[in-house]
Design a protein that fits this description.
signal; coiled coil; elongated; mainly alpha
Amino acid sequence: MNVLLLLALLRTSECWWAGQKAIVDKLGKQEFDVDAEELPPVVSDSEASIGNTSDEFTSTKSEEEHRQRILEREIDTKKVKHDAEEIIQQDKSYQETLRNLKEQEQTQKDKPTKVLKIDSIEALCSYRLSEVMGENAKLWEEVRDWRSTSEALRKMLEEEQKKSSQLASQLEVREEEMVMNQADTIKLLKVKNKNLASKVKECDCNLNAARKDL
């Protein structure tokens, strides 16, 4: 992978150098064209007085156009020079990156990495598959344990519900018995209360009789 990247960068660097050379050649040609062109001769006052007004206007206009073309070419030349400088800086960056890649490649050559063979990869995959299957079997065993535990808990819950129902029915019977016992006790207490009242009354009568005898 690094070798392919290195070749791609080498190809890119060659393209950049070719583009840089073309730009430099273009700059030299433009500078030569600008230097080769000369301004038209300036017409003196005496010669201008001899010529007519239309010739003066035409000469001035052509001179201005020529100056404008030279100015535009100078601007284009500066722009091309600026672009060329940027390309040179980019090429320096590419060269630095290329140098770093070469150093990395040399380091990898000095310390080669171990490459697994096909049979080693197959053995590793088989071993990993057996591990996964073992883990899967353990998970299924845990699931079965959870299911059995859940079933046992469900049965215990049903038994507890039955016991609760039995206790509730027993409690109802016990409450009914207690109510009946309370009613019987109240009746018995009323009878005893009447007997005690009659005895108290009898004692009062005897006490009054004894007082009269005294």
